[in-house]
Amino acid sequence: MTLALSVGLSSGKHTVTQAKASVKVVWRQKMTHGTYTINPSKANHAYAYSAKLGKKLFKLSNYTNRTFTTYYHQKLKINNKSRIYYYVKSATKKSIAGWVWRGYLTKKNSNSKSSTSIIGATVNSQSQLMSYVNDAPDLDPSLTVLGFETNVYSKYKSLLSQQYNLGQFAAADVFKNNHAKIYVADSQLNSYVNTAIQRWNSALGKNVFSIGSASDHTLTIKLSDNSEKGWDGLFSGNTIMINTTNFTDPNYASNNLTTSPALETKLTNISNQASSLLDLTNTLLNKLRINYQLQYLTLQGKYNSSNSSSTKSAIQKQISDLTSNYDTQNKAIRENYNAEVSQLQQAVKDAYNQEQPSISQASTENYWTTVIMHELGHGLGLYHTPYRSDVMYASSSSEQDATPSPVKYAWTQAKDPSDDRAYVSATLTSRDVDRAKLAGILGYW
Protein backbone atom coordinates (compact mmCIF):
# COMPACT_ATOMS: atom_id res chain seq x y z
CA MET A 1 0.00 0.00 0.00
CA THR A 2 1.34 3.44 -0.90
CA LEU A 3 1.52 5.93 1.93
CA ALA A 4 0.23 9.49 1.78
CA LEU A 5 1.88 12.04 4.05
CA SER A 6 0.40 15.29 5.31
CA VAL A 7 2.33 17.70 7.53
CA GLY A 8 -0.16 20.31 8.72
CA LEU A 9 0.99 23.88 9.37
CA SER A 10 -1.07 26.45 11.21
CA SER A 11 -0.83 28.97 8.39
CA GLY A 12 -2.55 26.55 6.03
CA LYS A 13 -0.02 27.42 3.34
CA HIS A 14 2.28 24.38 3.48
CA THR A 15 0.75 20.93 3.06
CA VAL A 16 2.80 18.10 1.67
CA THR A 17 0.86 15.43 -0.13
CA GLN A 18 1.86 12.56 -2.33
CA ALA A 19 0.67 12.99 -5.90
CA LYS A 20 -1.57 10.17 -7.08
CA ALA A 21 0.29 9.86 -10.36
CA SER A 22 3.62 8.08 -10.75
CA VAL A 23 6.24 10.79 -11.35
CA LYS A 24 9.86 10.14 -12.38
CA VAL A 25 12.56 12.66 -13.27
CA VAL A 26 14.15 11.71 -16.62
CA TRP A 27 16.57 14.67 -16.59
CA ARG A 28 16.94 18.11 -15.02
CA GLN A 29 19.25 20.86 -16.32
CA LYS A 30 19.94 24.58 -16.16
CA MET A 31 18.50 26.56 -19.06
CA THR A 32 19.04 29.94 -20.67
CA HIS A 33 17.08 32.65 -18.84
CA GLY A 34 13.93 33.55 -20.71
CA THR A 35 10.94 35.72 -19.86
CA TYR A 36 7.45 34.25 -19.91
CA THR A 37 3.93 35.07 -18.88
CA ILE A 38 1.11 32.76 -17.81
CA ASN A 39 -1.29 31.90 -20.63
CA PRO A 40 -4.70 32.54 -18.99
CA SER A 41 -6.64 30.64 -21.65
CA LYS A 42 -4.73 27.42 -20.91
CA ALA A 43 -3.81 27.74 -17.23
CA ASN A 44 -7.14 28.73 -15.70
CA HIS A 45 -7.17 25.78 -13.27
CA ALA A 46 -3.46 24.96 -13.25
CA TYR A 47 -0.79 25.28 -10.55
CA ALA A 48 2.95 25.66 -10.06
CA TYR A 49 4.45 22.70 -8.21
CA SER A 50 7.41 21.51 -6.23
CA ALA A 51 10.06 19.63 -8.20
CA LYS A 52 8.33 16.24 -8.45
CA LEU A 53 4.77 17.64 -8.44
CA GLY A 54 4.32 16.58 -4.84
CA LYS A 55 2.99 19.95 -3.66
CA LYS A 56 0.94 22.74 -5.19
CA LEU A 57 2.72 26.07 -4.64
CA PHE A 58 0.41 28.65 -6.22
CA LYS A 59 -2.47 28.92 -8.68
CA LEU A 60 -1.26 30.22 -12.04
CA SER A 61 -4.40 32.24 -12.79
CA ASN A 62 -3.57 34.51 -9.84
CA TYR A 63 -0.39 35.69 -11.59
CA THR A 64 -1.37 36.28 -15.22
CA ASN A 65 -0.20 39.90 -14.94
CA ARG A 66 3.35 38.95 -13.91
CA THR A 67 6.50 38.24 -15.87
CA PHE A 68 8.46 35.11 -14.93
CA THR A 69 12.10 34.21 -15.58
CA THR A 70 13.17 30.63 -16.34
CA TYR A 71 16.14 29.02 -14.53
CA TYR A 72 15.88 25.22 -15.01
CA HIS A 73 13.95 22.73 -17.09
CA GLN A 74 13.21 19.08 -16.46
CA LYS A 75 11.63 16.16 -18.24
CA LEU A 76 9.18 14.20 -16.13
CA LYS A 77 7.57 10.88 -16.91
CA ILE A 78 4.05 11.00 -15.46
CA ASN A 79 2.24 7.68 -15.68
CA ASN A 80 4.56 6.83 -18.62
CA LYS A 81 3.77 10.10 -20.43
CA SER A 82 6.54 12.69 -20.78
CA ARG A 83 6.20 16.41 -20.07
CA ILE A 84 8.67 19.30 -19.89
CA TYR A 85 8.48 21.62 -16.88
CA TYR A 86 10.26 24.94 -16.37
CA TYR A 87 11.38 26.27 -13.00
CA VAL A 88 10.33 29.93 -13.00
CA LYS A 89 10.52 32.88 -10.61
CA SER A 90 8.53 36.09 -10.68
CA ALA A 91 10.71 38.88 -12.04
CA THR A 92 9.51 41.25 -9.30
CA LYS A 93 9.00 38.90 -6.35
CA LYS A 94 11.44 35.98 -6.21
CA SER A 95 9.44 34.12 -3.54
CA ILE A 96 6.78 33.39 -6.18
CA ALA A 97 8.51 30.43 -7.81
CA GLY A 98 7.86 26.87 -8.85
CA TRP A 99 7.78 24.25 -11.62
CA VAL A 100 5.27 24.98 -14.38
CA TRP A 101 4.39 22.89 -17.42
CA ARG A 102 5.74 24.79 -20.40
CA GLY A 103 2.40 24.53 -22.19
CA TYR A 104 0.97 27.01 -19.67
CA LEU A 105 3.65 29.61 -20.47
CA THR A 106 3.90 32.17 -23.26
CA LYS A 107 7.33 33.52 -24.17
CA LYS A 108 7.57 37.30 -24.21
CA ASN A 109 8.75 38.78 -27.47
CA SER A 110 12.08 40.52 -26.95
CA ASN A 111 11.05 42.96 -29.67
CA SER A 112 7.74 43.83 -28.01
CA LYS A 113 6.93 47.43 -27.22
CA SER A 114 8.42 48.72 -23.99
CA SER A 115 8.19 52.14 -22.45
CA THR A 116 11.24 54.38 -22.81
CA SER A 117 11.69 57.38 -20.55
CA ILE A 118 12.14 60.74 -22.26
CA ILE A 119 13.13 63.60 -20.00
CA GLY A 120 11.72 66.91 -21.23
CA ALA A 121 9.32 65.28 -23.68
CA THR A 122 7.23 67.64 -25.77
CA VAL A 123 3.47 67.67 -25.19
CA ASN A 124 1.50 69.43 -27.91
CA SER A 125 -1.92 67.95 -27.22
CA GLN A 126 -3.99 66.01 -24.72
CA SER A 127 -3.79 62.91 -26.90
CA GLN A 128 0.00 63.12 -26.94
CA LEU A 129 0.01 63.44 -23.13
CA MET A 130 -2.26 60.40 -22.86
CA SER A 131 0.10 58.39 -25.06
CA TYR A 132 2.86 58.96 -22.47
CA VAL A 133 0.47 58.10 -19.63
CA ASN A 134 -0.64 54.90 -21.36
CA ASP A 135 2.96 53.84 -22.00
CA ALA A 136 3.66 53.93 -18.25
CA PRO A 137 2.51 51.25 -15.77
CA ASP A 138 -0.99 51.64 -14.39
CA LEU A 139 -1.19 54.55 -11.90
CA ASP A 140 2.62 54.82 -11.84
CA PRO A 141 4.00 57.93 -13.58
CA SER A 142 7.15 57.18 -15.51
CA LEU A 143 10.24 59.38 -15.68
CA THR A 144 8.74 60.78 -18.87
CA VAL A 145 5.58 61.89 -17.07
CA LEU A 146 7.69 63.30 -14.22
CA GLY A 147 9.98 65.14 -16.63
CA PHE A 148 7.70 67.38 -18.71
CA GLU A 149 8.21 71.11 -19.08
CA THR A 150 6.59 73.06 -16.22
CA ASN A 151 3.75 74.48 -18.32
CA VAL A 152 2.46 70.94 -19.08
CA TYR A 153 1.56 70.38 -15.43
CA SER A 154 -0.34 73.64 -15.06
CA LYS A 155 -2.21 73.09 -18.32
CA TYR A 156 -3.14 69.46 -17.68
CA LYS A 157 -3.27 69.39 -13.87
CA SER A 158 -6.85 68.12 -13.74
CA LEU A 159 -6.22 65.36 -16.29
CA LEU A 160 -3.00 64.17 -14.63
CA SER A 161 -4.66 64.22 -11.22
CA GLN A 162 -7.42 61.95 -12.45
CA GLN A 163 -5.05 59.61 -14.29
CA TYR A 164 -3.00 59.10 -11.11
CA ASN A 165 -5.72 59.44 -8.41
CA LEU A 166 -4.37 62.68 -6.93
CA GLY A 167 -6.10 65.56 -5.16
CA GLN A 168 -5.78 68.38 -2.64
CA PHE A 169 -6.44 66.79 0.74
CA ALA A 170 -4.15 68.82 3.00
CA ALA A 171 -5.18 72.25 4.28
CA ALA A 172 -3.49 75.17 2.51
CA ASP A 173 -1.03 75.89 5.34
CA VAL A 174 0.14 72.29 6.03
CA PHE A 175 3.07 72.52 3.60
CA LYS A 176 5.33 75.56 3.61
CA ASN A 177 8.06 75.48 0.98
CA ASN A 178 7.24 71.81 0.33
CA HIS A 179 7.72 70.94 4.00
CA ALA A 180 5.39 69.98 6.86
CA LYS A 181 6.16 70.00 10.60
CA ILE A 182 4.42 67.31 12.58
CA TYR A 183 3.33 67.54 16.21
CA VAL A 184 2.80 64.11 17.77
CA ALA A 185 0.22 64.71 20.48
CA ASP A 186 0.49 61.23 22.02
CA SER A 187 3.91 59.82 22.86
CA GLN A 188 2.77 56.23 22.16
CA LEU A 189 2.81 57.16 18.49
CA ASN A 190 6.34 58.57 18.41
CA SER A 191 8.23 55.54 17.09
CA TYR A 192 5.69 54.84 14.36
CA VAL A 193 5.59 58.47 13.23
CA ASN A 194 9.39 58.74 13.20
CA THR A 195 9.69 55.60 11.05
CA ALA A 196 6.93 56.75 8.69
CA ILE A 197 8.63 60.15 8.28
CA GLN A 198 12.02 58.55 7.62
CA ARG A 199 10.62 56.25 4.95
CA TRP A 200 8.75 58.96 3.07
CA ASN A 201 11.71 61.37 3.25
CA SER A 202 14.16 58.71 2.12
CA ALA A 203 11.94 57.62 -0.76
CA LEU A 204 11.35 61.18 -1.97
CA GLY A 205 14.99 62.16 -1.51
CA LYS A 206 14.18 65.30 0.47
CA ASN A 207 13.11 66.45 3.91
CA VAL A 208 9.35 66.67 3.31
CA PHE A 209 8.29 65.85 6.89
CA SER A 210 9.93 66.65 10.22
CA ILE A 211 8.97 66.60 13.88
CA GLY A 212 7.67 69.90 15.23
CA SER A 213 6.30 70.89 18.62
CA ALA A 214 3.00 71.89 20.19
CA SER A 215 3.79 75.54 19.46
CA ASP A 216 5.46 75.06 16.09
CA HIS A 217 3.76 72.66 13.71
CA THR A 218 1.54 72.50 10.64
CA LEU A 219 0.19 68.96 10.99
CA THR A 220 -0.95 67.06 14.10
CA ILE A 221 -1.00 63.31 14.62
CA LYS A 222 -2.97 62.09 17.61
CA LEU A 223 -5.03 59.26 19.05
CA SER A 224 -8.79 59.64 18.73
CA ASP A 225 -11.76 57.89 20.34
CA ASN A 226 -14.04 58.55 17.36
CA SER A 227 -13.86 54.94 16.26
CA GLU A 228 -17.50 54.10 15.74
CA LYS A 229 -17.01 53.96 11.95
CA GLY A 230 -14.22 51.41 12.12
CA TRP A 231 -11.23 53.23 10.64
CA ASP A 232 -7.62 52.80 11.80
CA GLY A 233 -6.38 56.18 10.60
CA LEU A 234 -8.16 59.26 9.25
CA PHE A 235 -6.74 62.33 7.52
CA SER A 236 -8.67 65.55 8.01
CA GLY A 237 -7.12 68.73 6.60
CA ASN A 238 -4.32 69.32 9.11
CA THR A 239 -4.86 66.40 11.47
CA ILE A 240 -4.22 62.67 11.34
CA MET A 241 -6.26 60.67 13.84
CA ILE A 242 -5.35 57.14 14.89
CA ASN A 243 -8.07 54.88 16.29
CA THR A 244 -7.36 54.61 20.05
CA THR A 245 -9.36 51.41 20.55
CA ASN A 246 -7.54 49.50 17.82
CA PHE A 247 -4.13 50.99 18.60
CA THR A 248 -4.27 50.01 22.28
CA ASP A 249 -5.56 46.49 21.55
CA PRO A 250 -2.41 44.30 21.79
CA ASN A 251 -3.94 41.66 19.53
CA TYR A 252 -5.31 43.96 16.82
CA ALA A 253 -2.23 44.22 14.61
CA SER A 254 -1.22 40.66 15.43
CA ASN A 255 -4.35 39.46 13.66
CA ASN A 256 -2.45 40.39 10.49
CA LEU A 257 0.47 38.10 11.30
CA THR A 258 2.72 37.22 8.42
CA THR A 259 5.60 34.80 8.19
CA SER A 260 9.12 36.06 7.68
CA PRO A 261 11.41 34.83 4.88
CA ALA A 262 13.43 32.92 7.50
CA LEU A 263 10.34 31.06 8.69
CA GLU A 264 9.23 30.40 5.12
CA THR A 265 12.66 28.87 4.42
CA LYS A 266 12.38 26.63 7.49
CA LEU A 267 8.90 25.48 6.49
CA THR A 268 10.00 24.81 2.93
CA ASN A 269 12.95 22.74 4.17
CA ILE A 270 10.64 20.74 6.43
CA SER A 271 8.23 20.19 3.53
CA ASN A 272 11.12 18.98 1.37
CA GLN A 273 12.22 16.58 4.12
CA ALA A 274 8.66 15.31 4.37
CA SER A 275 8.48 14.72 0.61
CA SER A 276 11.82 12.89 0.64
CA LEU A 277 10.73 10.77 3.60
CA LEU A 278 7.53 9.85 1.83
CA ASP A 279 9.34 8.90 -1.39
CA LEU A 280 11.90 6.80 0.50
CA THR A 281 9.26 5.04 2.60
CA ASN A 282 7.08 4.17 -0.38
CA THR A 283 10.15 2.86 -2.24
CA LEU A 284 11.06 0.60 0.70
CA LEU A 285 7.48 -0.64 1.05
CA ASN A 286 7.18 -1.37 -2.65
CA LYS A 287 10.49 -3.26 -2.77
CA LEU A 288 9.50 -5.26 0.31
CA ARG A 289 6.08 -6.08 -1.15
CA ILE A 290 7.45 -7.09 -4.57
CA ASN A 291 10.16 -9.29 -3.02
CA TYR A 292 7.57 -10.92 -0.76
CA GLN A 293 5.17 -11.56 -3.64
CA LEU A 294 7.89 -13.11 -5.80
CA GLN A 295 9.07 -15.44 -3.03
CA TYR A 296 5.50 -16.28 -2.07
CA LEU A 297 4.55 -17.18 -5.65
CA THR A 298 7.71 -19.30 -5.99
CA LEU A 299 6.93 -21.22 -2.82
CA GLN A 300 3.26 -21.55 -3.77
CA GLY A 301 4.30 -23.04 -7.11
CA LYS A 302 6.55 -25.56 -5.38
CA TYR A 303 3.73 -26.42 -2.98
CA ASN A 304 1.23 -27.02 -5.78
CA SER A 305 3.65 -29.19 -7.78
CA SER A 306 4.74 -31.34 -4.86
CA ASN A 307 3.12 -34.71 -4.09
CA SER A 308 4.98 -35.21 -0.83
CA SER A 309 3.10 -34.30 2.31
CA SER A 310 6.34 -33.70 4.19
CA THR A 311 7.57 -31.36 1.46
CA LYS A 312 4.23 -29.51 1.44
CA SER A 313 4.46 -29.14 5.21
CA ALA A 314 7.98 -27.72 4.95
CA ILE A 315 6.89 -25.28 2.23
CA GLN A 316 3.93 -24.18 4.33
CA LYS A 317 6.36 -23.45 7.16
CA GLN A 318 8.53 -21.41 4.77
CA ILE A 319 5.46 -19.46 3.57
CA SER A 320 4.41 -18.79 7.15
CA ASP A 321 7.91 -17.60 8.08
CA LEU A 322 8.07 -15.46 4.91
CA THR A 323 4.73 -13.82 5.69
CA SER A 324 5.66 -13.25 9.32
CA ASN A 325 8.98 -11.70 8.30
CA TYR A 326 7.21 -9.50 5.72
CA ASP A 327 4.70 -8.29 8.32
CA THR A 328 7.49 -7.53 10.77
CA GLN A 329 9.54 -5.51 8.26
CA ASN A 330 6.44 -3.75 6.91
CA LYS A 331 5.46 -2.73 10.43
CA ALA A 332 9.01 -1.53 11.22
CA ILE A 333 9.15 0.65 8.10
CA ARG A 334 5.77 2.20 8.88
CA GLU A 335 6.61 2.78 12.54
CA ASN A 336 9.86 4.48 11.55
CA TYR A 337 7.91 6.56 9.04
CA ASN A 338 5.35 7.63 11.66
CA ALA A 339 8.08 8.47 14.15
CA GLU A 340 9.90 10.70 11.65
CA VAL A 341 6.61 12.35 10.62
CA SER A 342 5.98 13.20 14.27
CA GLN A 343 9.43 14.78 14.46
CA LEU A 344 8.73 16.87 11.36
CA GLN A 345 5.36 17.98 12.73
CA GLN A 346 7.07 19.00 15.96
CA ALA A 347 9.69 20.87 13.93
CA VAL A 348 6.88 22.87 12.32
CA LYS A 349 5.45 23.78 15.72
CA ASP A 350 8.91 24.70 17.05
CA ALA A 351 9.57 26.92 14.03
CA TYR A 352 6.34 28.83 14.61
CA ASN A 353 6.91 29.09 18.37
CA GLN A 354 10.44 30.45 17.85
CA GLU A 355 9.21 32.96 15.31
CA GLN A 356 6.03 34.06 17.09
CA PRO A 357 7.45 36.82 19.34
CA SER A 358 9.33 38.52 16.52
CA ILE A 359 6.36 38.07 14.17
CA SER A 360 4.03 39.74 16.67
CA GLN A 361 6.37 42.64 17.30
CA ALA A 362 7.17 43.17 13.64
CA SER A 363 3.50 42.92 12.74
CA THR A 364 2.53 45.59 15.27
CA GLU A 365 5.34 47.93 14.29
CA ASN A 366 4.82 47.53 10.58
CA TYR A 367 1.05 47.74 10.77
CA TRP A 368 0.83 51.08 12.60
CA THR A 369 3.81 52.50 10.71
CA THR A 370 1.96 51.69 7.48
CA VAL A 371 -1.26 53.27 8.74
CA ILE A 372 0.60 56.51 9.44
CA MET A 373 2.51 56.33 6.13
CA HIS A 374 -0.88 55.91 4.42
CA GLU A 375 -2.34 59.00 6.10
CA LEU A 376 0.79 61.05 5.36
CA GLY A 377 0.31 59.93 1.76
CA HIS A 378 -3.12 61.56 1.80
CA GLY A 379 -1.43 64.70 3.08
CA LEU A 380 0.86 64.58 0.04
CA GLY A 381 -2.19 64.43 -2.23
CA LEU A 382 -2.43 60.68 -2.85
CA TYR A 383 -5.81 59.03 -3.12
CA HIS A 384 -6.17 55.25 -2.94
CA THR A 385 -5.11 52.57 -5.44
CA PRO A 386 -6.39 49.02 -6.05
CA TYR A 387 -2.93 47.47 -5.49
CA ARG A 388 -2.54 45.59 -2.20
CA SER A 389 1.23 46.05 -2.24
CA ASP A 390 0.85 49.85 -2.20
CA VAL A 391 0.83 51.75 1.08
CA MET A 392 -2.08 53.70 -0.46
CA TYR A 393 -4.20 50.59 -1.14
CA ALA A 394 -7.93 50.52 -0.43
CA SER A 395 -10.30 47.64 -1.12
CA SER A 396 -12.71 49.94 -2.94
CA SER A 397 -12.48 53.21 -4.86
CA SER A 398 -15.40 54.48 -2.78
CA GLU A 399 -14.22 53.29 0.62
CA GLN A 400 -16.34 54.55 3.48
CA ASP A 401 -14.97 57.68 5.21
CA ALA A 402 -12.43 58.27 2.42
CA THR A 403 -12.13 61.81 1.10
CA PRO A 404 -13.71 61.80 -2.39
CA SER A 405 -11.34 62.25 -5.30
CA PRO A 406 -11.49 61.89 -9.07
CA VAL A 407 -10.14 58.45 -9.97
CA LYS A 408 -8.82 56.90 -13.16
CA TYR A 409 -11.34 54.06 -12.80
CA ALA A 410 -13.56 52.56 -10.12
CA TRP A 411 -12.69 49.26 -8.42
CA THR A 412 -14.19 46.88 -5.88
CA GLN A 413 -11.39 44.32 -5.70
CA ALA A 414 -7.60 44.32 -5.69
CA LYS A 415 -5.67 44.11 -8.95
CA ASP A 416 -2.92 42.08 -7.25
CA PRO A 417 -4.99 39.78 -4.99
CA SER A 418 -2.12 37.38 -4.30
CA ASP A 419 0.44 40.00 -3.28
CA ASP A 420 1.25 40.79 0.34
CA ARG A 421 -0.32 43.85 1.91
CA ALA A 422 2.04 46.79 2.42
CA TYR A 423 1.94 46.40 6.20
CA VAL A 424 3.86 43.12 5.92
CA SER A 425 7.06 45.13 5.51
CA ALA A 426 5.83 48.75 5.79
CA THR A 427 7.54 49.50 2.49
CA LEU A 428 6.57 52.08 -0.11
CA THR A 429 6.22 50.83 -3.68
CA SER A 430 7.53 52.70 -6.72
CA ARG A 431 3.90 53.52 -7.48
CA ASP A 432 3.49 55.20 -4.07
CA VAL A 433 6.69 57.21 -4.50
CA ASP A 434 6.23 58.21 -8.15
CA ARG A 435 2.68 59.39 -7.48
CA ALA A 436 3.93 61.44 -4.54
CA LYS A 437 6.58 63.04 -6.74
CA LEU A 438 3.95 63.95 -9.33
CA ALA A 439 1.69 65.32 -6.59
CA GLY A 440 4.55 67.60 -5.53
CA ILE A 441 5.05 68.82 -9.10
CA LEU A 442 1.31 69.55 -9.35
CA GLY A 443 1.50 71.64 -6.19
CA TYR A 444 -0.36 69.43 -3.72
CA TRP A 445 2.47 69.67 -1.18
Automatic annotation (TrEMBL):
GO MF annotation list: metallopeptidase activity
Record keywords, A-Z: Hydrolase, Metal-binding, Protease, Zinc
Residue ranges of every copy of the Peptidase M10 metallopeptidase domain listed in the record: 361-398
Superkingdom of origin organism: Bacteria
Gene3D superfamilies reported for this sequence: Collagenase (Catalytic Domain) (3.40.390.10)
Protease keyword on record: yes
UniProt keyword Protease present: yes
Protein name: Peptidase M10 metallopeptidase domain-containing protein
Organism: Lentilactobacillus farraginis DSM 18382 = JCM 14108
